[in-house]
Amino acid sequence: MAAADTLLERITDYANRPNPYPLYTELREAGPVVRQADGSYLIGTYHEIAALLHDPRISADPRSLATPPEGAPKPPFLRLDDPEHHRLRSLAMRPFGPPHSPGHIDAMRGQITELTEELLQNLQDRTQIDIVDDFAYPLPVTVICRLLGVPQEDEPQFRQWSDAIVASADVRPDEGASAERDRAGEQARIEMGQYLVNLAEQRRDHPTGDMLSAYINEPDPAMRLTHEELAETAVLLLIAGHETTVNLITNGVLTLLRHPDHLDRLRREPDLLPAAVEELLRYEPPVHMRQRIPLADVDIAGTTLPKGTSVVLALASGNRDPKRFHDPDRFDPTRPDNQHFGFGSGIHLCYGAPLARIEAQAALGALIPHLPSATLLQDPPPYRHAAMLRGPRHLPIRL
User: Fold this and answer.
1) Of 161, 151, 166, whose CA–CA distance to 191 is shortest?
2) Cβ(363)–Cβ(143) below 8 Å
3) What does the pLDDT read at residue 172?
4) Structurally, how many domains does the chain consist of?
5) What is the CATH number of the domain that holds 117?
6) pTM (2 d.p.)
7) Where are the alpha helices (DSSP H) in the chain?
8) Which end of the chain is more exposed for a tag (fewer CB within 10 A), N or C?
9) What is the pLDDT of residues 27-86, one digit of tens each?
């Protein structure tokens, strides 16, 4: 066994992307808190992760690091702390309306179900498809484009921007070697933000029923986003609105094809699908890690996390902690009491979780009848580079 102080380096090594779970087991066995060679701390046990995600002394803002990234811009509200996080999050979600109202969710479900059927219709004569390019990517991209009011013909351009931004946001131990990636990510963020603000400005006094229109035509001055806040918020919504859902759907198809008995049961008992999606969020989550920074010295499990140090919470490891989940390495679509970290926890709980659940249920529900006769053409498939947002880059199957 290699030294525990290189675990983060090994987990983020692309060679381990197809199966990082043995490393997570090693992490949990090494202790709740494992100091890394670079001075950061890695945590992979469920109860300690939960405690830190709910601790107000733990910051999500990278500017809280003892040595913050040089020239670091103000991060999107996803990485801010309260009260600023709460203010911007509340403003960003106003156009959604009540996020849990039955009418709102049902309306979205109908549109998404129609869209999944359209996508499948276009694939019906194919004998081989790539789940990512042909289905898992187009579905959430189309949904978030419609919600925001972004022309879908511009998708090739914002896909490039998204890839650069996600790459720059990845958790990685080799910070010194990533300056070029960070610059590319920041440039992409600026260009994408300007593009979205320009779209919004075109709808000033001429709303078209989308979120950009709602932001730019907000009647209450106290509730208006500044241009900078609008750019940051729209970029975040566009990226977060599809990146994680692509991974969730693709990981779901891969897992079901690897477990044909559960696939067959879900085909026969479609009412189990919502619980199966929750289990997929635990078993193969789209987000594997999050970085946090203590605002003061914080004691956890007998270890002091010094103020300003980088703390990486391995959410996917916590999801498989045997002290929280029975037989955690087994995929069980009927698992009870499934309080996973698939959407995080605490004040930064994913605000798009209701929409992501609908998209995953609609996508898998539409695909499952076609999957029993499908075969994987590559297992493991090629993975995307990011360790934090983990999912296959392609998933070719034969129907």
Assistant:
1) 161
2) no
3) 63
4) 1
5) 1.10.630.10
6) 0.91
7) 7-12, 21-30, 46-53, 84-93, 102-123, 131, 138-148, 155-168, 179-202, 211-216, 227-240, 243-258, 260-268, 273-283, 315-318, 353-367
8) N
9) 999 999 999 999 999 999 999 999 999 999 999 999 999 887 766 677 878 889 999 999
Nearest to 161 by CA among 201, 141, 190: 190
Domain coverage including residue 306 = 4-398
DSSP 302: T
For 8-12, 175-179, 335-339, 392-396, which range has the lowest pLDDT when averaged over its residues?
Answer: 175-179
Nearest to 358 by CA among 269, 232, 241: 241
CB 213, CB 234: distance < 8 Å: no
Q: Which two tokens stand for residue 204?
A: 């000033």
Single-letter code of the amino acid located at 266: L
| Backbone torsion region of residue 269, taken as left when φ is above 0, otherwise alpha when ψ lies between -120 and 50, otherwise beta | beta
Selection from 141, 120, 142 nearest residue 131 by Cα? 120
Return d(Cα 8, Cα 35) in angstroms, integer: 10
List the structure tokens of 236: 């975040």
Q: How confident is the model at residue 399 (pLDDT cuts 50, 70, 90)?
A: confident
Alpha carbon distance 315, 299 (integer Å): 19
pLDDT tens digits, one per residue of 252-283: 999 999 999 999 999 999 999 999 999 999 99
Give every CB contact of residue 151 below 8 A, 6+ residues apart in sequence.
145
